[in-house]
């Protein structure tokens, strides 16, 4: 009790919503707490993942995806997933709280359950797995610890997707680990670290064997020894340990636990049909005692074991079970359950000291046996060859088959480096160990991930860039262009165009409207300029000034002179009033040559008329005239 009270999370509120009341159980992947959802005022089971997993970003990404998939499962035999979240370093899953106990607790208490109790439980488990399999979700860690027996007698399966989240993360990829409780791992999980619906079928078959016999089909000194047996030995019929079991149950277990996936039912739904048919062949059950109780559970979990895929590496088994599950009875058969209050067997007599030589001989024999077993295991293994990746699927298939391997095609993945329909990866990977003549999975490339360009026409530039980034693409260069129809500042088009699929690492160029194009009306008459600008929706502001370059009434300047502007914008025009007015010099009485020079220096044109004399007697016009005017002078 002190350990639970000292848990630092007890009493805290996670994500501003879940108040942790007490710790229920601790396992290999996380700790389960009883918590109150303060928002909905309901009790939930809160599974907080271990910090080593929560620090792995790839695991977090996979965990969120698997939680969403599990939350979509709605079935009476599936523990409901309500929410997932993260509060600082605490990554958690909020689930339905099921008062009761686990199937492991029941097995520890009672041992073999008998056909009439085992089959209803396994059928409920298969119904839950069947719902998951219909949704393309694989459990990957089916075991009695993940089967909850509610106080009301209902059977529920929990922890969907967590094993996949772990096995897909860097927590296992970087160290060559595979995930699962070793006693229930299918041969393909041990050899290749891959699992599908048929792997869940295998684990369910092993669990049924344990329900009927009180022990798992394979035991060993180490997890590796157990894994070796799963790969190389067939699960025996349960009647080999429990004589008298109906043949239909032997057939059910053997069909579910075929060493090759193809030998098993395709999914849990198919196996459920076989189980129901087997139950119908059973003789009527004996009458139940009056004080028979319901199957019930209490929150608890056996840690999931993590073992290395490489048989040469040291096994890593994190976590310690909070109880010791029964692994079998005495050599003569399964042990009968002990009833509460019954006197136990007498204590064993003190054993005599074993001679030292006999002890050394025994140790040496164990070493030799272990070495022989390991050598036999290694002789069955081979290294996955190089050269299967980067080539076409057809070529890789032919090459693998020449090496005596069987080939399966896995789901295609995107790759920026490997061309489409070429092999981008194998499972197991090159250099890994696998069983000789086993199955290798070729993962084909779908080529680079292609993303359709979003339609950002009519958007402001800032919003358009955000939409392009949200689509997974990168905004590229921005160019400005005039447009009669698209307002200034809005996107006219993109290159590539909207809807076109491009590589995810491509950039999208954006063309933004400068507004309506402004015509250049300089040099035109004011009336013509006004008409051209008003037709495009512009307002006009006119000023006048003298100009020697432009005749009166013509546009001297405009602002802006080019580019584009929004409709309703004002265009400023400067209109010529003609040349400036200047005073004509008085040249009367001057010699005609001197008079001409004087007028030309003043900027006038001069027209001469001479009738005999050489002095100017007449000039026209006089006074103030436009600069550059022609002055006529007459000499008499």
CATH architecture label of the largest domain: Orthogonal Bundle
How many individual β-strands? 30
End-to-end separation in angstroms reads: 138 Å
Provide the structure class: alpha+beta
Strand content: 15-25%
Q: Helical proportion?
A: 25-40%
- What is the top-level CATH class of the largest domain? Mainly Alpha
Mean pLDDT: 81
Rounded radius of gyration (Å): 45 Å
CATH topology of the largest domain: Transferase(Phosphotransferase), domain 1
Quick one: biggest sheet? Answer: 6 strands, antiparallel
Describe, in plain words, how this protein is organized in 3D:
With 636 residues, the chain is of the alpha+beta class. The protein folds into six domains: 2-96, Phosphorylase Kinase, domain 1; 100-283 and 294-308, Orthogonal Bundle (Transferase(Phosphotransferase), domain 1), CATH 1.10.510.10; 383-444, Trypsin Inhibitor V, Chain A (2-Layer Sandwich), CATH 3.30.10.20; 450-517, 2-Layer Sandwich (Trypsin Inhibitor V, Chain A); 526-576, Trypsin Inhibitor V, Chain A, CATH 3.30.10; 581-635, Trypsin Inhibitor V, Chain A. The strands form ten sheets. It has a six-stranded antiparallel sheet. Strands 18, 19, 21 and 24 form a four-stranded mixed sheet that branches. The longest helix is centred in the middle third of the chain and has 24 residues, at 356-379. The protein is elongated and about 155 Å long. It starts with a helix and ends with a strand. Mean pLDDT is 81; it is low at 1-5, 165-180, 290-352 and 372-378.
